[in-house]
Amino acid sequence: MVNTIYLDNSATTKPLKEVMQAFMVVNEQYYANPASIHAMGVEANDLLIRAREQVADILQTEAKNVLFTSGGTESNNAAIFGIARSNTHIGKHILTTEIEHPSVLETMKQLEKEGFDVEYLRVDRRGVISLDELRTKIRKETILVSIMHVNNEMGAIQPIKEAAKMIHEMSRAAFHVDAVQSFGKLAISFKEEGPDIISISGHKIHGFKGSGVLAFRKPIRWQPFALGGGQEFGMRSGTVAVPQAVALAKAARLAVETMNERSNKYRQWHDEIRTQLESYGEAVHVLSTPQGAAHIVSFSVCDLKGEVIINAMQKRGVIVSTSSACSSKQTKTSHVVEALHLDEHYKKGVIRLSFGAHNTIEDIENFKQVLAEVMLELKGEKK
Ligand SMILES: Cc1ncc(COP(=O)(O)O)c(C=O)c1O
Q1: Which overall architecture, per CATH, does domain 5-13+259-378 show?
Q2: pLDDT, tens digit, for every residue of 56-70?
Q3: Is the CB of 54 under 6 A from ligand 1?
Q4: Which residues are catalytic, by number?
Q5: What is the pLDDT of residues 194-205, one digit of tens each?
Q6: How many C-alpha atoms does 242 have within 13 Å on its Cβ side?
Q7: Domain ranges, ordered by start, for the chain
Q8: pLDDT at position 379
């Protein structure tokens, strides 16, 4: 669509030109298999080594602890299955939260079927876990704690540092953080007290769909997810997609370099839109909080279905989504909205707008204008 204002960057982002350029060059000139021992293979492998080192530097770990994957879903699955299935000699107890992405929750459900004891931490109305509840739930036999950094549906930020300290003091559990929505927007690394495992997705940071990272603070007892030719230090078999790896490293570097500048802009836009939304009084409930991630604003209009608002905005060239792309085609209320215990009137459709590197102040001004028009048009329309 031409002339659209794309405000669905938490679903996916448009790749940056520099990232596409890097991808093209590697595909055209360095397409050899990086595991091949001939000169072309060595060249491709050199690029892979450099990409891995770049990501390792950003995350403050060693290159041997960085694996390239096919995205956030694979990284989350691999982290959780890998830790759980190889640490049963310590215990079978796992902690996570009730608002994780389905790539975590569905993996946990599978582990429950396999006899693991999974407990789900609750969140308050701001979407944040209680550290007191975490403290009471950690046991000697807890082997894994998986907590997302930023929630994809409404932007709540979890207290990762404090949780890491507590988990490490009280147990031998590995701490996995799904940083898919936070990487490049908030500081996240293995520096000081932090997670043991981090998942990242390329397409949320202006890289490509089908690319991701699973990174470890240090080598850990872990069972590989994909078996085969022993690539990626034997931890993730399959011919490594060097162009994706190089593109992801480039996207990651650009995201981190521009993080502060973008965050300041996003915060200002977030605050302005919040002020406008709050001016509609009881007609609108804003789920995102001022303490949450700046790039996500989610809200709900009293007794109105999400699709109605999405369509009304789309007619005017503005693309927003229901709270999450993966549940947006489903009709049932999302698990995140349920966990927030919203009033029934605000459960029918949560709208999420999410900013990205290509958005401009003009986009936001236009969005605010469209929001005003749509609110006027839909006034009194209840479904
Ligand atoms: C918080 C979170 N985790 C994981 C994923 C899955 O990432 P991918 O689409 O790369 O598989 C997403 C995607 O929406 C997400 O928002």
Answers
A1: Alpha-Beta Complex (3.90)
A2: 999 999 999 999 999
A3: no
A4: 326
A5: 899 999 999 999
A6: 24
A7: 5-13+259-378, 17-257
A8: 79
38 CA to centre of ligand 1 in angstroms: 37
Mutate-to-test residue for ligand 1 from 8, 99, 181, highest number of ligand atoms within 8 A of CB: 181
Dist CA 350 CA 270 (whole Å):
16
Asked if 49 and 246 count as a contact pair (C-beta separation under 8 A), the reply is no
Q: Is the CB of 201 inside a 6 Å radius of any atom of ligand 1?
A: yes
What per-residue confidence (pLDDT) applies to 140? 94
Tell me what the pLDDT averaged over the chain comes to: 94
- Sign of the CA dihedral 371, 373, 376, 379? negative
CATH topology of domain 17-257: Aspartate Aminotransferase; domain 2 (3.40.640)
Residue 233 region by backbone torsions, left for phi larger than 0, else alpha for psi between -120 and 50, else beta:
left
Whole-number CA gyration radius for the chain: 21
Residues of the chain with pLDDT under 50: 325-326, 383
